[in-house]
């Protein structure tokens, strides 16, 4: 029997892009999945669009938070309702390529791994291709402490190996914290070189400037990992060293 996959999508004022996101999942060659979308109190027409999709496809399940709480809370609500062995992620402005689930599941089953990820393509707000982000062959906990090398839209984990795991209650970089938690329970995560997803680079996204993420990196080290101020600052300095070396 084919494994069941729960796909986790948060939404907030996503009317401009979520239609493409949902259709990219509906068009997957692998069909044994459920899509759980939690809306974070959108003020546009997102919820009405979600209701139309849910009424047409029983695999699409929608939820709404009582108050705006951030994407991590929205993802956790969907994870709580998930019934699949595998948990995968796709945000409301991103897309999957048609063979994403099929190829990634094959790799996970072959390697018997708890966490996997892939390369992905980057497009601008108008859908024009900008570049590809190439995944590492594998990462472990120590490697991931340096920086988040796993694109959330490509990640998938196996609940049979690590249990159902949630993102911490912080506003930014919750996905990185989750990967670190999973890697504490498993030796490594495996990367797939082929780009299997499409990331939309939004002009208003904090992730467009890596240096803006430093304060959130520190929050991961201090609040989630429980590191001392000294060790956290050392990790920040190491990040800066590798960041500026890559720019030379």
Quick description:
It contains 9 helices and 10 strands. It has helices at 18-26, 46-56, 71-81, 100-111, 141-146, 159-162, 174-185, 214-224, 229-247, and strands spanning 5-11, 33-39, 60-64, 86-89, 95-96, 115-123, 129-133, 138-139, 156-158, 189-200.
Walk me through what this model shows.
The protein is an alpha/beta fold. The chain is 38% helix and 23% strand. Strands 1, 2, 3, 4, 5, 6, 7, 8, 9 and 10 form a 10-stranded mixed sheet that branches. Helix 8 packs antiparallel against helix 9. It is globular. The mean pLDDT is 92.
- Reading the helices and strands in chain order gives EHEHEHEEHEEEHEHHEHH
Oligomer: single chain
Structural class label: alpha/beta
Task: Please tally the helical runs, counting DSSP H or I stretches of 4 or more residues.
Answer: 9
Shape: globular
According to DSSP, the number of beta strands is: 10
Regions with little confidence, pLDDT below 50 for 5+ residues: none
Strand content: 15-25%
Q: What separation lies between the terminal Cα atoms?
A: 51 Å
Rg from Cα: 17 Å
Helix content: 25-40%
Mean pLDDT across the residues is 92
């Amino acid at each position: 029997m084919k494994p069941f996959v729960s796909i986790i999508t948060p939404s907030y004022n996503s009317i401009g892009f979520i239609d493409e996101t949902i259709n990219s999942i509906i068009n997957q060659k692998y069909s044994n999945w459920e899509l759980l979308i939690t809306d974070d109190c959108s003020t546009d027409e997102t919820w009405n669009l979600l209701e139309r999709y849910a009424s047409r496809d029983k695999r699409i399940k929608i939820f709404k938070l009582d108050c705006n709480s951030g994407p991590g809370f929205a993802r956790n609500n969907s994870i709580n309702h998930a019934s699949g062995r595998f948990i995968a992620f796709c945000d409301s402005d991103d897309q999957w390529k048609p063979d994403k689930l099929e190829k990634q599941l094959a790799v996970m089953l072959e390697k018997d791994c708890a966490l996997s990820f892939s390369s992905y393509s980057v497009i601008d707000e108008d859908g024009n291709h900008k570049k590809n982000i190439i995944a590492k062959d594998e990462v472990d906990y120590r490697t991931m402490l340096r920086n988040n090398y796993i694109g959330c839209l490509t990640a998938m984990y196996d609940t049979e190996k690590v249990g159902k795991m949630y993102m911490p209650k912080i506003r930014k970089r919750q996905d990185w914290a989750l990967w670190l938690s999973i890697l504490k329970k498993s030796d490594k995560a495996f990367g797939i070189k082929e780009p299997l997803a499409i990331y939309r680079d939004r002009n208003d996204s904090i992730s467009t400037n890596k240096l803006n993420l430093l304060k959130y990196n520190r929050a991961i080290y201090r609040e989630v990992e429980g590191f001392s101020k000294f060790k956290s600052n050392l990790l920040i300095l190491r990040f800066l060293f590798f960041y500026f070396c890559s720019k030379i």
